[in-house]
Specification:
Chains A, B: Belongs to the SIMIBI class G3E GTPase family. ArgK/MeaB subfamily. The structure is a homodimer. Chain A is of the alpha/beta class. Chain A has 14 helices and seven strands. Chain A has a seven-stranded parallel sheet, with helices on both faces. Chains A and B meet through helix 3, helix 12, helix 13 and helix 14 of A and helix 3, helix 12, helix 13 and helix 14 of B.
């Protein structure tokens, strides 16, 4: 499927249709963004005036804790509030991407005929700068298209979690009893990134213990902070039966209010924009630097060290 | 512990002592590298003429497959051949690093008094460009210090695995029965990066099945390649009793011979040097670009898109 988008007029038309709630236009814009097409700067310019309204919520946690189920339950909860909701499922291990895949259709489930819901999975593996490049641009599309809430769900643990934090206004970290106790959480570095802890599958044995462990870890971690700081609440849920999801929605809203009252929301969005600009700039410069070429041969031969080679690469190609 | 290294003479002395086999000098050089100190270019220049001899072997796989045990068994096998062996254990999730830690002492185990063995754990989390920055420099230290074999062991799965490939001459991917069958391997992307598959804990049920699955996946994956290509062997081991380790050593040697015969070794080292130079150059440029500052405010306000902001950041700071 060729994009068929050639100029600023086409892009403006596409953005207009996306803002009118046409899912195909939204999907098309995300594809343009995801492919890193030449029209990307054009698309970004057309989106910019319409951005800044969506609430971005990150959903992360180890495999098996019930992220998809929780995300779906959250979508339902926000729909009951009359909000338009979009989901980006970021899968750093998958080479597949796009709205036409079986996975997305399965995920859509009961939202399939609801024009107020948009679900898209994004593969970031091997992509231009990975998550740090494509996902923020997809977020901008959904923001400009008028979605009130955008849920960014990660698959797997690790680097991607940290990057989600750079994107989200509020980050939910999901755990399940017996899978992630406090110490594991600390080890995985999720204590630092969580704004709200969700202990899912709370009907299972050990849920209370996991919740207690987390609260204790939170109290330890916050002890040495000066000034007012947000203390991540620990919410127990059974996502499969939507139990406790209302409390998650409340916790997200409380976190947002707290951030707004303490200047944190503006601060986070500034950091997000800075990271985005810097990532794009570095990527552009990387392209202009070009390959190391002959310099690599000199380094392999021991005639040049990589730092000296890097300086030569910069001075040769950026003409400083 | 302050470094106390101030000039080219000090660095040359340190490199000389490292080449004489003094472990403290090696450790000191790695610390200098790891801290990204101002002396880094000086250290790199002093190391360059002595590099290019070490054989670099990556050891990776999911948690619980027995990477540390296998690494220790490999160290023993290479020592029996009279080779000097170094280990870098890269832990992207740990904030701790350095030779004085309990972990390294435990790991040293029976090698603690052997001057032909050097073991160092490196924390890459939150480090300057992570693994892509510090680990290649530590490798150069060990290479210049005259270690014949450097084993780079990763902790955890994901991004770090892919980066190990960029470093290693040969990459071992470890699996254990019932933990990673063929499909899981394919999903984790490890089929593409493995030069040698090791099915560890082969005394457990399911080992033969795992090995068969892997061989089948390998045959599928290689079918569409043109030209000569290396077919990763599948070796069964019980690392705890050193069973099968000799075959792993043989497989590594055969892979090396194959690469040398097909020009792959030179090719890989060129790619490694290129990646290293480019990573350093990008990092240097990133520093010169500086923070997005006021541009981020314009992007948050919707007055500017991030691509236009990135161009302004570049033209403002790199004076092209």
């Amino acid at each position: 499927m060729s994009s068929g988008v050639a100029n600023a007029g086409d892009v403006a038309g596409l953005v207009g249709r996306a803002r009118d709630g046409e899912p195909r236009a939204v999907a098309r814009l995300i594809s343009l963004v995801e492919q890193g097409s030449a029209q990307l700067p054009l698309v970004a310019a057309a989106l910019a005036p319409h951005t800044g309204n969506a609430q971005v919520v990150g959903v992360t946690g180890a495999p098996g804790v019930g992220k998809s189920t929780s995300t779906n339950a959250l979508v339902r909860a926000y729909r009951e509030q009359g909000k338009r909701v979009a989901v980006i499922a970021v899968d750093p291990s998958s080479p597949f991407s796009g709205g036409a895949l079986l996975g997305d259709r399965v995920r859509m489930g009961d939202h399939a005929t609801d024009p107020g819901v948009f679900i898209r999975s994004m593969a970031t593996r091997g992509h231009l700068g990975g998550l740090s490049w494509a996902t923020p641009q997809a977020l901008r599309v959904l923001d400009a298209a008028g979605f009130d809430v955008v849920l960014v769900e990660t698959v797997g643990v690790g680097q991607s979690e940290v990057e989600v934090v750079a994107l989200a206004d509020t980050t939910l970290v999901l755990l399940a009893p017996g899978m992630g106790d406090g110490i594991q959480a600390a080890k995985a570095g999720i204590l630092e990134i969580a704004d709200v802890f969700v202990v899912n599958k709370a009907d299972r044995e050990g849920a209370d213990q996991t919740a207690r462990d987390l609260k204790y870890m939170v109290s330890l971690g916050r002890r040495d902070r000066s000034g007012p700081s947000w203390r991540p609440p620990v919410v127990k849920t059974v996502a499969a039966s939507a139990e406790g999801l209302d409390r998650v929605v409340t916790a997200i809203a409380e976190h947002r209010s707290w951030m707004a009252a303490h200047g944190e929301l503006a601060e986070r969005r500034l950091r997000r924009a800075s990271a985005e600009i810097e990532a794009i700039a570095v990527e552009r410069v990387r392209t202009r630097l070009g390959p190391a070429g002959h310099l690599a041969e000199l380094v392999v031969g021991g005639e040049l060290d990589p730092f000296a080679a890097a300086e030569l690469l910069i001075s040769g190609n950026l003409r400083q």
